[in-house]
Amino acid sequence: MTFREYQLKAKETAQFPEEETAFIYASLAMMGEAGEVAEKIKKIWRDKKKQVGAEDREEIKKELGDVLWYLSQLADQLGINFDDVAQTNLEKTQSRLTRNAISGSGDNR
Q1: Helices (DSSP H) in 13-53: which residue ranges?
Q2: Strand ranges in 1-109 using DSSP code E only, listed in sequence order
Q3: Per residue in 3-25, is it b (16+ CB within 10 Å) or e — as a string?
Q4: pLDDT tens-digit profile of 7-24?
Q5: Taking phi first (over 0 means left), then psi (-120 to 50 degrees means alpha), and beta for anything else, what does residue 79 get?
Q6: Sign of CA pseudo-dihedral 52, 2, 22, 17
Q7: pLDDT at 106
Q8: Which residues have CB under 8 Å from 44's CB, separation 6+?
Q9: Which of 51, 52, 64, 82 is buried deepest, with most CB atoms within 10 A?
Q10: Which DSSP symbol is given to 99?
Q11: pLDDT by residue (tens digit) across 38-57?
């Protein structure tokens, strides 16, 4: 499955309160889901001595899927092909590696 295929398939289940502001809703929901991933990681760190079990992996996988779903729909709402998002990111990170600029700060390093 390509990222674009995922994006289109995920769109079949998309329901937003207001279509004209769906990109805002998708953005906020994506951050909420990312927070749920972080919360599960925090509890592993706090309660399980940083040991990730099989059940933890499954629960985190579900939350990562929710992040992916909202990310794909945010891109869709902005008219961005999800394949292009993935390709552009790989090109950016490969360029940083080639230029020895992986570490550091700044969006355009």
Answers
A1: 22-47
A2: none
A3: bbeebeebeeebeeeeeeebbeb
A4: 999 999 999 999 899 999
A5: left
A6: negative
A7: 82
A8: 50, 51, 52, 56
A9: 82
A10: T
A11: 999 999 999 999 999 999 99
